[in-house]
């Protein structure tokens, strides 16, 4: 690590203040170009600690940048990982207040819920499928705190991978009931289809994103606990939204989920 504890605490407070006050900032590596991956995750961990210290609950985890196209575009070989706080959750069909956000975009995702803990190293798709209770449609709202979504990956990790809101719902199904690679998805905005894809867009199989998360946590001596909700990453490009929009994600065999932006 290259940053001292006081700097990590200060950067975490800065980024969380930007989230809570819906204001943007320049990417933090401009002032701290020597920041490494451990520093970046330490800043994210401090944001998480701050939320829990105020009585918040961590209700899930997420993988980001998991589609091959986006990884190639950004020149990365590993996804990034973040957490979901209770304050991020929107009920299915519920409202998301745009005034509380900076420049929101939505991502269509497959959400996993585990019934057994998953621990790396060596976690693989088979272990993930064996430990999964059910999967369901999920929409993640991302809202990078960085001006105009201009960032580098370490800055993104420190910023909890742009996480801000999410909705899950639809028809939860056991993994044996659906082929997660070929399951088709349609994201609609205001009733119009705006993005299409299939589960395989995420690392060939969305369970691979969960395995990578387990291996990432395992390297830190942590695990994915039983009963975790995990967003496995956007299947298509993210779609910008504004007040007045409604979005709906339909996934073959899993029904639909949606939210409204007000
Ligand atoms: O969940 C995601 O894939 C977002 C990762 C962070 C990068 C971004 O804000 O686009
Ligand atoms: Mg996402």
UniProtKB/TrEMBL annotation:
<dbReference type="GO" id="GO:0047437">
    <property type="term" value="F:4-oxalocrotonate decarboxylase activity"/>
</dbReference>
<protein>
    <submittedName>
        <fullName>2-oxo-3-hexenedioate decarboxylase</fullName>
        <ecNumber>4.1.1.77</ecNumber>
    </submittedName>
</protein>
<dbReference type="Pfam" id="PF01557">
    <property type="entry name" value="FAA_hydrolase"/>
</dbReference>
<dbReference type="InterPro" id="IPR050772">
    <property type="entry name" value="Hydratase-Decarb/MhpD_sf"/>
</dbReference>
<dbReference type="InterPro" id="IPR017630">
    <property type="entry name" value="4-oxalocrotonate_decarboxylase"/>
</dbReference>
<dbReference type="InterPro" id="IPR036663">
    <property type="entry name" value="Fumarylacetoacetase_C_sf"/>
</dbReference>
<dbReference type="InterPro" id="IPR011234">
    <property type="entry name" value="Fumarylacetoacetase-like_C"/>
</dbReference>
<feature type="domain" description="Fumarylacetoacetase-like C-terminal">
    <location>
        <begin position="79"/>
        <end position="260"/>
    </location>
</feature>
<keyword id="KW-0456">Lyase</keyword>
């Amino acid at each position: 690590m290259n940053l001292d504890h006081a700097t990590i605490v200060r950067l975490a407070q800065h980024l969380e203040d930007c989230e809570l006050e819906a204001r943007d900032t320049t990417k933090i590596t401009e002032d701290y170009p020597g920041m490494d991956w451990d520093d970046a995750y330490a800043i994210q961990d401090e944001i998480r600690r701050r939320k829990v210290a105020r009585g918040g609950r961590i209700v899930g985890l997420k993988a980001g940048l998991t589609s091959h196209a986006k990884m190639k575009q950004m020149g990365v070989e590993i996804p990034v990982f973040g957490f979901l706080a209770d304050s991020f959750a929107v009920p299915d069909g519920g409202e998301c207040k745009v005034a509380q956000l900076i420049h929101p975009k939505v991502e269509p995702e497959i959400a996993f819920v585990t019934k057994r803990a998953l621990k790396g190293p060596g976690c693989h798709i088979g272990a993930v499928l064996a430990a999964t209770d059910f999967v369901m449609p999920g929409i993640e709202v991302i809202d990078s705190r960085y001006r105009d979504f201009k960032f580098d990956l370490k800055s993104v990790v420190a910023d909890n991978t742009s996480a801000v809101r999410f909705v899950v719902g639809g028809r939860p199904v056991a993994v044996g009931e659906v082929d997660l690679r070929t399951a088709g998805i349609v994201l609609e905005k205001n009733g119009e289809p705006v993005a299409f894809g299939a589960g395989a867009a995420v690392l060939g199989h969305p369970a691979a994103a969960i395995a990578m998360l387990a291996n990432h946590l395992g390297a830190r001596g942590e695990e994915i606990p039983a009963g975790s909700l995990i967003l496995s990453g956007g299947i298509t490009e993210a779609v910008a939204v504004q007040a007045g929009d409604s979005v709906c994600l339909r996934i073959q065999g899993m029904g639909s989920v949606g939210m409204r932006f007000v």
